[in-house]
Amino acid sequence: MTTGSRDLDTGRPHSARMYDYYLGGKDWFEADRQAAEYVVEHHPSVRTMARANRAFMHRATRTLAREHGVRDFLDLGTGIPTEPNLHQVAQAEEPTARVVYVDNDPLVVEYTDVLMRGTDEGRTAYLEADVRTDEILEHPRVRATLEWGGPVALSLVALLHFVPDGAYDLVRRLLEPLPSGSFLVLSHSTREFLTEEETRIGEEFYRGKGTDVRLRSRAEIAAFFDGLDLLAPGVVAAHRWRPDAEPAHDDAEVGLFAGVARKP
Ligand SMILES: C[S@@+](CC[C@H](N)C(=O)[O-])C[C@H]1O[C@@H](n2cnc3c(N)ncnc32)[C@H](O)[C@@H]1O
Fold it and tell me: Which residue CA neighbors atom 11 of ligand 1 most closely?
């Protein structure tokens, strides 16, 4: 693997590279593998969660491109690329699809060459920004990459559990300027199947690694869609959202709720 121009600290595990390891990707180092294996040993379903989440993103993107004519995608909290990435799914349906990726982790920019490799007819761009504080929709790169005549898919996949405070306002602010008929695609880690104690331990584990996390109940996750028209089957465990095959896991193992909704 290449490390790009910045000095990456490869001796310390990084959550984004660990996530790539769970997904079966190749952008991790030995320290990431060891830390990820430790987590797998204590929390064996973490791989299932990561894969179910990613597969939900693929199905939701495909559905919006194929059935709803969406050509413009704004993906916030992109993570390290793992194929197929969102633009590959969208452009396989519609080669002119345009995608902007956004993440605030400086590590991700090291891998963006993969995110830029799309069809000749389509466009992709990457923006290093914090979704909580930066005016993403106003950014010239976002304005220039997406077209604003049709619906935009706002993709917040496995992101908002990293936004403990102000998450509902954030979603409202992001959706507000988007045209009517735009879509919200969202998945979120849940506390629904955990005891209070398990939730506390889980949140503290991440906080101890410097990442603030809030696991939310199913009702709290469903509330992100208030005022929008949910596509069937509504807010469900991620692997039950229009599955390609009969779901093979318990909802508790997947540990994420997900949904797609249209802005009226
Ligand atoms: C679990 S990964 C999800 C990656 C991808 N969306 C997926 O579902 O496969 C969450 C990503 O969100 C990013 N992230 C977390 N908080 C963020 C923020 N405030 N602004 C931008 N990105 C953020 C992290 O850096 C990480 O890459």
Answer: 77
- Examine residue 152 and state whether it is found in any structural domain, yes or no: yes
Best residue among 22, 61, 162 to mutate for probing ligand 1's pocket (most ligand atoms within 8 Å of CB) is 162
**256 CB near ligand 1 (under 6 Å):** no
Q: Is 105 in the pocket of ligand 1 (CB under 6 A)?
A: yes
Domain region containing 187: 43-262
Q: How many CB atoms lie within 10 A of CB 42?
A: 9
> Is the beta carbon of 61 within 6 A of some atom in ligand 1?
no
- Ligand 1 lined by 49 (C-beta under 6 Å): no
Does any ligand 1 atom lie closer than 6 A to the CB of residue 25?
A: no
Q: Distance of CA 31 to CAs 41, 175, 228, 231, 240, Å?
A: 16, 39, 43, 41, 34
Q: What is the CATH number of the domain that holds 245?
A: 3.40.50.150
Query: Which letter does DSSP use for residue 248 in this model?
Result: -
Torsion of CA 190, 45, 200, 32, to 10 degrees: -110
Q: What is the reported pLDDT for 36?
A: 87
For 189-206, what is each residue's pLDDT tens digit?
999 999 999 899 888 877
Residues of the chain with pLDDT under 50: 1-6
Domain annotation covers residue 2:
no
